[in-house]
Amino acid sequence: MSDAGADEAQFRAEVAAWARRLGVETRRVTIRAMRRKWGSASSAGRLTFATDLLTQPLEFRAEVIAHELLHLRRGGHGKVFEAVLRAVLARWREEQGGAPDDGRRPAETRG
Ligand SMILES: [Zn+2]
Question: Please, what is the end-to-end C-alpha distance for the chain in angstroms?
C-alpha cells in the first residue's frame, strides 16, 4: 500500500469506491479545512472531509472515509457501528493484499 497521500481527484475516487462498497449514496462531498474533525456526515447525505486528510496514508484515509460513509447508514458511535466499521475495514485490508492492521484508530474528532 502506498502511504504517499492523495490528490483531490484520487481522494474523491476513494470516497466513491467506498460508497459503492457500503451501498450508500452521497449527495455532496466537500473537502475543506477543518480544525477539529477529519470528517463529518449530515443526515441529508452530505459529507465533509478535512483538506489535510489528503496528506495522510491510505489506511488512515480509508478509516475516516468508511467511518463517515457508515454514518449515512447509521448514526452515533455505538457498538454496532464500531463492529461494522471494523469488519468492513478488515475485509478491505484483506483485499489490499493482507496488509496488517497498523493499530491506528483515527477518530473523526481530532485529539
Ligand atoms: Zn462518527
Answer: 26
